[in-house]
Amino acid sequence: MRTTENQLLVIFGASGDLTARKLVPALYKLYQEKHLPEHFAVLGVARSFMTDEQFRKRVALESKHIKDSDEFIAQFSEKLFYQDLGDSYDVSYMELNERLQDLNTAYQTDNNFIFYLSTPPSLFEPIAKNLTAQGLNDEREGWKRLIIEKPFGYSLDTAQSLNNDLHRYFKEKQIYRIDHYLGKETVQNILVTRFANSIFEPLWNRSYIHHVEITNAESDGVESRGGYYDKSGALRDMFQSHLLQLVALIVMEPPLSADPEEIRNEKLKALKSLRLMTDPEVLEQNTIRGQYLASEIDGERVNGYREEEDVDPDSTTETYAAVKFYVDNWRWADVPFYVRTAKRMPTKVTEVVIHFKSPHHQIFKNSNINKDNKLVIRIQPDEGILVKFGVKVPGQGFKVERGNLDFYYSSLGDTHIMEAYERLLLDAMQGDATLYARADEVEAAWRFTDPILEYWKEGNARIYGYSAGVWGPEHADELIEGKGQWRNPGAHLADDPGYCVIE
Ligand SMILES: NC(=O)C1=CN([C@@H]2O[C@H](COP(=O)(O)OP(=O)(O)OC[C@H]3O[C@@H](n4cnc5c(N)ncnc54)[C@H](OP(=O)(O)O)[C@@H]3O)[C@@H](O)[C@H]2O)C=CC1
Ligand SMILES: O=C1O[C@H](COP(=O)(O)O)[C@@H](O)[C@H](O)[C@H]1O
Question: Which ligand 1 atom is the nearest neighbour of the CA of 121?
């Protein structure tokens, strides 16, 4: 059992959206579930002026994301404090340090500090530098950890220079780069499915796997984040980070143990083995970008991307990205990977599908099976795993249909499944970086993504429009043709069509 030592959590960007919507509710849940240490406090930091009481009201007492009895919330709120930084950096950081030391003494947090940077990325380096100037990176008394929000860089160059900047002030082992997909239970379950069973891993290679398909679909548009998204796009926002982390978990070799560095070493090797696409012809044939157009969903008009708030009316930023690629190593040679991510799809769903090859000799010639075995790892919603396999239809002869063999997390009843930010915060509090991305992993992911972005930026690849509420541009079907078709899953895995369900 890992221990959570006494500590003080400092959140930069405490007046922002993420703090109110994700971080404080996650801390509250950890408090409810009794995961927080006996001596614990949170200091929120931003430029806006607020008293402790105003901060508490804003993020806890009046938060629609926290629901519980007033008394319990009030107890939790007493652990929350706020310090404004104003605009004059040196003086402010000195005051911040004094406040920290006072809280550290009052709450007996043993000089253990986590600094969570939930600010615009341009502030990651200056905050690390200012903390260092105050000696707040020094681990001689108590440990110091730095959590960095996404996006981590905008390209390989910018990610490398951010890594270099941060390493000037903090050691790699002090740095925790958030990728909230790694905090999802079902994403972690990929490791368990593969390495805690002997029934999947022997098949997990080019001899048995036909192709791998990953879909990340959101039904929402860009909502209020148009300003950020228009400079980012689907490839930077989802593919480079969350989806390549999923790919790494699917592709990686078995680690020696569940030790964080062993797992991260294998993920790095996996990311390094993705075949770089630099030839324009290859990029043209293997990547597709799209942008959603205005449409009607359930009788209501929804905006096209270019009409969204804070989006350039002539924007060529992609809201749909599909990439086909190969992994150049012994295990995966010639197995195509198809990964797509998009906004304004028919439903919100993320899943990994391992498509197995057909049996190499068909005995049941009259069977009406034209689909192969599949392993569906449903990341969200309706989290679970589904195996599609052939079963005999009762009656004469050998008619074969696809049956479903499944497991759903919802069947665990009342078991509390930690939300990603809860899990990640608790891990950082306990000094476990397994579910955080290491510097070299992030760079390897950018190395693969950069040439696609460059090719798209040059205006070479066409940007296909698709109506909001459909599965992306029709042209994307050509990418996967010859290997089958996109699975276009429904919201509920439990409703996945199958001849029978084996309980
Ligand atoms: N919101 C979301 O759903 C997601 C956000 N993220 C990431 O989380 C981070 C925060 O995002 P979000 O909360 O949405 O952003 P917001 O714009 O809502 O908040 C930014 C915060 O940074 C503060 N800030 C700005 N300048 C400074 C400064 N000089 N010193 C200290 N604080 C400062 C702002 O407060 P003030 O103006 O008072 O200083 C505010 O509290 C970003 O890196 C974002 O990419 C990642 C995934 C999802
Ligand atoms: O990081 C991000 O993720 C969300 C999707 O997260 P999920 O947990 O709801 O799947 C995405 O909407 C956002 O654009 C992106 O920045």
Answer: 43
State the CATH architecture for 7-149.
Answer: 3-Layer(aba) Sandwich (3.40)
Compute φ and ψ for 376, nearest 5 degrees: -105, 120
> What CATH number matches the domain at 182-417+434-502, 3.40.1010.20, 3.30.360.10, 3.20.20.140, 3.40.50.720?
3.30.360.10
Place of tokens 């002030």: 169
Atom of ligand 2 nearest to the CA of 220: 12
User: What's the length of the chain?
Assistant: 503
- Three-class DSSP category at 502: strand
Pocket test for ligand 2, best of 223, 237, 245 (most atoms within 8 A of CB): 237
pTM: 0.94
Residue 457 DSSP symbol: H
492 is catalytic: no
Q: Residue 133: is it exposed, middle or buried by C-beta count within 10 angstroms (0-12/13-18/19+)?
A: middle
Ligand 1 atom 4 nearest Cα:
18
Exactly one of 39, 210, 242, 475 is catalytic; name it.
242
247, 260, 263: which is closest to 176 by C-alpha? 260
pLDDT in tens, 233-291: 999 999 999 999 999 999 999 999 999 999 999 999 999 999 999 999 999 999 999 99
Query: In terms of pLDDT, which residue wins out, 92 or 448?
Result: 448
Token pair of 217 as six digits: 């679909």
Report the candidate in 105, 160, 159, 116 with the shortest Cα–Cα distance to residue 9: 116
Indicate whether residue 149 lines ligand 2 (CB < 6 A).
Answer: no
Q: Give the residue ranges of the annotated binding site for substrate.
A: 180, 184, 218, 237, 343, 348
Q: Where are the domains of the chain?
A: 7-149, 182-417+434-502
Non-local CB neighbours of 317 within 8 Å, separated by 6+ positions: 229, 230, 231, 232, 233, 291, 305, 311
Beta bridge partners of 389: 403
Tell me, what's the ipTM?
A: 0.97
Q: Where are the beta strands (DSSP E) in 317-442?
A: 320-325, 337-342, 349-356, 374-380, 384-392, 400-408
Read out DSSP for 30-99? HHHTT-S-SSEEEEEEESS---HHHHHIIIIIT-TT--S-HHHHHHHHTTEEEEE--S-HHHHHHHHHHH
